[in-house]
Specification:
This is FHA domain-containing protein. It comes from Thermosporothrix sp. COM3. This protein is α+β, with helices and mostly antiparallel strands and about 300 residues long. The protein folds into two domains: about 120 residues, FhaA, phosphopeptide-binding domain (DUF3662) (hypothetical protein PF0899 fold); about 100 residues, Tumour Suppressor Smad4 (Sandwich), CATH 2.60.200.20. It contains five helices and 17 strands. A hairpin with a 2-residue loop joins strand 16 and strand 17.
Length: about 300
C-alpha cells in the first residue's frame, strides 16, 4: 500500500520540486549517487506511519525515477549502488528508531519527462514475508546488521532476472591488510554480462601503496572488484574511495576494461580524472584514491 504522507511534508516536497526542477534544467550537472541517498532518507522520514507505543513504521519499497540520461549513467553500477542504498537505509532507520517491515526494496526507473539532475522517489509499505514480517531496526545489533547484509539478494530491482553466480574466489584467504584477496566465505557481487567460466589471459596489476611500497595482483578471473568494502578483491583503504568503487572485467572481445561503479570521485586513467570506463591497454595507469595501478598483459 502507498505510504500516507503528512500534508505539510507533501506541500514542502511540492515547493522543493517547483524550485529544483528549473534549476536542474538551467544548470545540469552529473547526478551523484549521494544525492539519491539523501533523497531516499528524506522519503523515508516524510512517509513514516505512527504505530502503537510511539513507534514509526518506515516504507520499505522505494521507486526512484530519473531522466533517461541519468539512468543510463548509473546503469553500469546499478546493482552495487542499490546494495549500498539498502544498507544505508537500514542503518538510518536504526539510528532514528524506525521500524522496517522488510529489507528495503529499491528500483530505478527512467522517465522521458524528467530532465538531468531531477529525482523523484515514490514509496510504498510492502507486505512482509510470514507473520507480521517486522524488522525492528531500532533493536538491531551490529552483528545482526552484518547478517542482514550477508543475506541481501544481488538483484533488487523488482525484475525477474536471476541472480548472477558468485565470482570464483582465489584459494588463498586475506590474512593481512596488504593481502589482495577477498575474505574467506564473502563473495563480492558480480556484474551481469560476464561469463564467469571464461579463460582469462595472463595479466596483472602492480599497485603502488601510499606508505608500504608495491604489491602485485595477478588477474586470474573475469571480474576483479576494487573498493573500500572488505568483500572486494582489492581493498583500497582510503576514505575518498567508495565501498564498491570500480571493476576490472575481461570482455568477450578479448580485452580487459575498467568500469566505475557510480563512485563519488571516479577514476583517474592515464592522467585524465573522473573517467567512468576505459579499455585497458598494456602499460595503462590508473589511480583510485591514493593507490596507483599499473596494468600489464603478458
Amino acid at each position: 500500500m502507498k505510504a500516507r504522507q503528512n500534508p505539510l511534508n507533501k506541500f514542502e516536497a511540492f515547493m522543493q520540486r517547483l524550485i529544483e526542477r528549473p534549476f536542474a534544467r538551467l544548470f545540469p550537472s552529473r547526478l551523484e549517487p549521494v544525492e539519491i541517498e539523501r533523497r531516499l532518507e528524506r522519503a523515508l522520514d516524510d512517509n513514516t506511519l505512527l504505530q502503537g507505543e510511539g513507534r514509526r513504521l518506515a516504507p520499505n519499497v522505494y521507486d526512484i525515477y530519473l531522466s533517461i540520461k541519468d539512468h543510463q549513467q548509473l546503469a553500469p553500477g546499478q546493482a552495487m549502488l542499490v546494495r549500498d542504498w539498502q544498507n544505508h537505509l537500514v542503518e538510518y532507520a536504526r539510528r532514528h528508531h524506525y521500524t522496517l517491515r522488510t529489507m528495503p526494496i529499491i528500483r530505478l526507473h527512467a522517465e522521458s519527462s524528467m530532465g538531468p539532475g531531477e529525482i523523484r522517489v515514490e514509496v510504498e509499505m510492502g507486505d512482509g514475508q510470514g507473520g507480521d514480517g517486522l524488522m525492528a531496526t531500532q533493536a538491531l545489533s551490529p552483528e545482526q546488521l552484518a547478517q542482514i547484509r550477508a543475506a541481501l539478494p544481488q538483484n533488487q530491482f523488482g525484475g525477474s532476472s536471476p541472480q548472477q553466480p558468485p565470482v570464483p574466489q582465489s584459494p588463498t584467504p586475506a590474512s593481512s591488510p596488504n593481502h589482495y584477496g577477498p575474505p574467506a566465505g564473502n563473495n563480492p557481487p558480480s556484474m551481469p554480462g560476464v561469463q564467469q567460466t571464461a579463460a582469462v589471459p595472463p595479466a596483472r596489476l602492480t599497485i603502488r601503496l601510499p606508505q608500504s611500497g608495491q604489491q602485485v595482483y595477478r588477474i586470474e578471473k573475469p571480474v576483479v572488484n576494487i573498493g573500500r568494502q572488505l568483500s572486494n578483491d582489492i581493498i583500497v583503504e582510503d576514505k575518498r574511495v567508495s565501498r564498491y568503487h570500480a571493476q576490472v572485467k575481461y570482455q568477450p572481445d578479448g580485452n580487459f576494461a575498467i568500469f566505475d561503479l557510480g563512485s563519488t570521485n571516479g577514476i583517474t586513467i592515464n592522467g585524465i580524472p573522473n573517467m567512468r570506463q576505459h579499455v585497458l591497454r598494456n602499460g595503462d595507469r590508473f589511480t583510485i584514491g591514493s593507490y596507483d595501478f599499473y596494468f600489464e598483459r603478458r
